[in-house]
Design a protein that fits this description.
Elements: E1 6-9, E2 18-22, H1 31-36, H2 52-55, H3 59-62, E3 66-69, E4 90-91, H4 100-103, E5 112-113, E6 117-118, E7 124-125, H5 126-155, E8 158-166, H6 168-174, E9 184-187, H7 196-207, E10 213-215, H8 223-228, E11 235-243, E12 248-249, E13 254-255, H9 259-279
Parallel strand pairs: 2-3, 2-8, 4-7, 8-11, 9-10
Antiparallel strand pairs: 1-3, 5-6, 9-11, 12-13
Helix pairs in contact: 7-9
């Protein structure tokens, strides 16, 4: 497909029920979108989970698929429901029931980027918003549902690791002292999206390489965790938020000198998580 709506890297042999996803690392900013924005090419990237897809790109070589967004979060947010439409930025919509994400400008078609900075000078048409959903949102989630279904069919379960990054400033707000600040926040919607034994093992994978890990505060999981996390039906989702200061220069949005070493560290974490999907469920025999 020319200009595909997402990137899907599959393992040669899919040996685990684990799936990795990076819905906010897309960086294909079209010229038309940039021209219509009030923000420059640097500022508009502030909500992007820059380089997260590269941090987790060892997964296919270790036996698990990796699906990554290509369109940027500022253009269409794949970790929101397709009906979270903001009448403050989309022309022709009537205000609906209160939704805190929409009210803050972070609906499926965002109104703002990090820091509450407005993206557009005015509004966009509803038809344009729908075209973005048809072009990017629906294909991404169709593919993600397909991966989950394949894992369940082959292994009897699916473990989805939804990969994100968090601004260092957000980390600093969690705890006043640097020694107590988490470097990784895992979200399972307080147990609603993942079985506790799987969550424990995911946490152990990150903690085992010396990273400070907390759960659900301040990031418990958004649409993907809510939509796909069904522990009682063998579908588990863990949202992973990694402190950007560990691997990138946030001000310049560039990999830092620590990037390669941190990426190598994460390879071991990825391998341990993939192993969860080998031991938690065995491949189902063909009928």
């Amino acid at each position: 497909m020319l200009n595909p709506p997402y990137r899907l890297d599959l393992p040669r042999d899919r040996t685990s029920s684990v799936i990795f996803a990076s819905p906010h690392s897309g960086r294909d900013y079209g010229l038309d979108f940039l021209r219509r924005s009030m923000l420059d090419e640097h500022a508009i990237r502030s909500s992007e989970d820059a380089f997260v897809d590269r941090l987790f790109d060892a997964a296919p070589g270790l036996g698990a698929p990796l699906i990554s967004a290509l369109a940027p979060r500022a253009f269409v947010d794949l970790n929101r429901s397709c009906d979270e439409l903001d009448p403050s930025v989309i022309r022709g919509l009537r205000p609906g029931a209160h939704n805190p994400r929409i009210s803050s400008g972070l609906g499926v078609i965002p109104r703002v980027v990090a820091g509450g900075r407005a993206i557009y000078r005015g509004k966009i048409d509803l038809a344009e918003a729908q075209a973005r959903l048809d072009r990017y949102w629906h294909p991404y989630h169709d593919a993600l549902r397909g991966l989950v279904g394949e894992s369940r069919a082959s292994f009897g379960e699916a473990i989805l690791i939804d990969c994100h990054s968090m601004p260092h400033e957000a980390v600093r707000s969690i705890a006043p002292r640097s020694s107590t600040r988490p470097e990784v926040v895992l979200g399972d919607r307080f147990g609603a999206a993942c079985a506790p034994e799987i969550m424990d093992r995911v946490e152990a994978a990150f903690a085992g390489v010396g990273l400070r890990v907390t759960r659900n505060t301040p990031f418990a999981g958004a649409f993907v965790a809510q939509q796909y996390g069904r522990p009682a039906h063998g579908q588990h989702v863990v949202q992973v938020e990694i402190d950007r200061a560990l691997y990138m220069d946030e001000a310049r949005i560039r990999p830092s000198q620590r990037f390669s070493d941190f990426r190598a560290t994460l390879r071991g974490v990825i391998a341990d998580i993939i192993e969860i999907g080998r031991t938690a469920a065995q491949p189902l025999a063909a009928e």
